[in-house]
Every structure is written in C-alpha cells, then in structure tokens.
Design goal:
The protein is an alpha/beta fold and about 325 residues long. The N and C termini lie far apart (about 50 Å).
Length: about 325
C-alpha cells in the first residue's frame, strides 16, 4: 500500500467512511494474494466478512409501523449524517461527558448494582443545541439514533396512539440505540392545562408509565422548548435534566472559529464588537451568520473573511 492509499485509508477512518475503508481493506487483501500470502489474505477476508456481518446486524433495528396506516413511527438518522461538534461551556461539557462515561462503564457499574443515567431531558430555547446534544451522544457512543415521528404516533382512533407509543419503546429494547423524543412537548403538555381532551391525556399517562418501565440497553433523550408547560411528573421520570442555554461570549467566539475553520479570516476583525452584536442569539443563528459570511466571501471571489462579510450577515439575519 503506497503513501497515497495510506492517506486515503486514514482519511476514511477519520471521516468514519465505512465504504472506503471496506474498499481499501479489499485492496490490501488483493495485494497480499498477488504476493502469494494466501494464508494472510484468507485470514483478512474472514475478519472483514465477520466485521461486515456484525455491522449489518447492528443496523437492523426494526422500526415499528402504525397498524392502521402502516406508517413508520420513527426514523433512523444515518451515522455519517450526525452533527457532533458541539460548543458548550465547561459545566455543560462536564455533564455530557459524565453521561458518556457512565454509559461506557455500565457493565462495571452493574457489578455494584449501579446503573448509568439512561433517561435524559434537554430543555431550552430553540436553536441552542438540544437535538445536536442527542446527535453528539450517538456519535461519541457509537449508537444508532432513532428519532420518533410524533405526527405518525398521534391517531384519532381510540387507543391507537398509546399502542403506537408502546411499540416505539418496545423497539428500543431490540438493540442499543439512542431513542430521541424530539420536542416531546408535542404530547407531553401539562395535564392540568385543560386544553386537551380524549386521546392526549391517555398518551401522557402512557408516556409516564413507559418512562417508569424503561430498561432498554441504550439511552432515551427527550428535548423540549417549553419547560413550564410540561407536567412536573414528567421531569421526575428522568435521570438527568439539563438546560441548554444560549451561548455566552466565549462560546460565541468558539462557534465562529469552528464554523469558519476552513476559511482564511482577517486578523484585525473586531471580535468584541461582533460578539456584542450577536449576544442573545441562539447557537444555530450564529452558525448561520458565519456560514452566510463565508458564502458571500466565496461568491465575491475573496479568499478571506473580513469584518464586512460578517456584519452583512448579521444585518441579513435580522430581516428574517
């Protein structure tokens, strides 16, 4: 294997590009066969086959469907589409790392009758990284991310919504995965609001029961923007409740640095002024500003991000 092939292999490993890794492995096997190293080549073939079979088996999470309309009740987010680079303050980063460490050490904890945190509620304003937090956990733990489709779960027929919800939780028992209840306030509004009648209260009660019974081999992550309108009983069902706040000054600058890392950035940009202008915005909006500044720079044929491009992008986002 020459230097170009080695670079390609290591780039594929860094990008988690399993298809390219598989191609390079087959190329290496062919080279060993040409050299007459049949025993080595056959052993490598066996290892590759076992690995591919295991990967296929790990991906076979049987997604449930609704009985009446045969709609899938959840969707699996492909591993290579997970966005996992997350800018957090030290306190939040520590809490996420603790969840990851506990999960990875679950067998060691079980020897002492201890269980890792497996039910996590993330709450906070829109665009601040709650869904990204679930993706980060899936990436770092190497688990499939299964996102519940609440619009498919809710049915006007008596009892079907609760049956759909139960099917989702039963699916999570099949193999380790991260079950994402994104924007769970869709069904988990406070029961005492008096606005929902019929099926919705039954779904909330079913959700509370399923959370109590949850013993799946993976993690359950729920997200919501509406902390105050959630049932207090729901909060008590989670092992950890984490508030994802809007980024502060330090995180804002780090978001700009990360988003613009592939571009040349002018050294004399007044970052204090830029940070002051975007303070109070969500992380998603700040990423959008940085990306729009980069696009404008490229479209104008400029290889460098200047303050002008960033300020233009800030003005544009206030027009939305």
């Amino acid at each position: 294997m020459n230097s170009t092939q080695l670079r390609r292999l290591f780039k594929a490993i860094a990008d988690n590009d399993n298809e390219t890794i598989n191609d390079m492995a087959n190329l290496l096997i062919e080279e060993e066969m040409k050299k007459g190293h049949n025993k080595v080549a056959n052993n490598l073939k066996k290892i590759l086959k076992e690995s591919n079979n295991r990967n296929i088996d790990e991906k076979m999470v049987q997604l449930p469907v609704s009985r009446r309309y045969n709609q899938t009740l959840a969707v699996e987010i492909p591993f290579n589409q997970l966005q996992h680079n997350m800018i957090l303050n030290e306190q939040l980063e520590s809490r996420f790392k603790k969840i990851e460490k506990e999960y990875l050490a679950k067998e060691r904890l079980s020897k002492y009758n201890l269980r890792p945190k497996t039910k996590i509620l993330l709450y906070g304003p829109s665009g601040c990284g709650k869904t990204l937090g679930a993706q980060r956990l899936a990436w770092n733990l190497g688990l499939p991310l299964i996102k519940v489709k609440f619009d498919a779960i809710i049915s006007s027929f008596l009892g079907e919504s609760t049956a759909n919800l139960r099917a989702i939780f039963e699916m999570s028992q099949q193999k380790p995965c991260i079950l994402l209840l994104d924007e769970c306030d869709f069904i988990a509004k406070a029961r005492n609001l008096g606005q929902d009648v019929g099926e919705i209260p039954r779904i909330v009660n079913m959700l509370l029961m399923l959370l109590d019974e949850y013993k799946a081999p993976g993690l359950l992550i729920a997200t919501t923007n509406l902390e105050k309108s959630l049932d207090n009983a729901l909060f008590r069902r989670f092992d950890d409740v984490i508030e994802i706040k809007k980024p502060e000054e330090v995180e804002i600058k780090r978001i700009f640095d990360m988003t613009l890392s592939a571009m040349k950035v002018e050294k004399n940009i007044n970052w204090d002024m830029i940070v002051e202008k975007v303070k109070g915005m969500s992380a998603a909006n700040i990423v959008t500003i940085a990306e729009n500044a980069a696009k404008e720079s490229v479209l104008e044929g400029n290889v460098m991000i200047t303050q002008k491009y960033i300020e233009n992008a800030i003005v544009d986002i206030f027009k939305y």
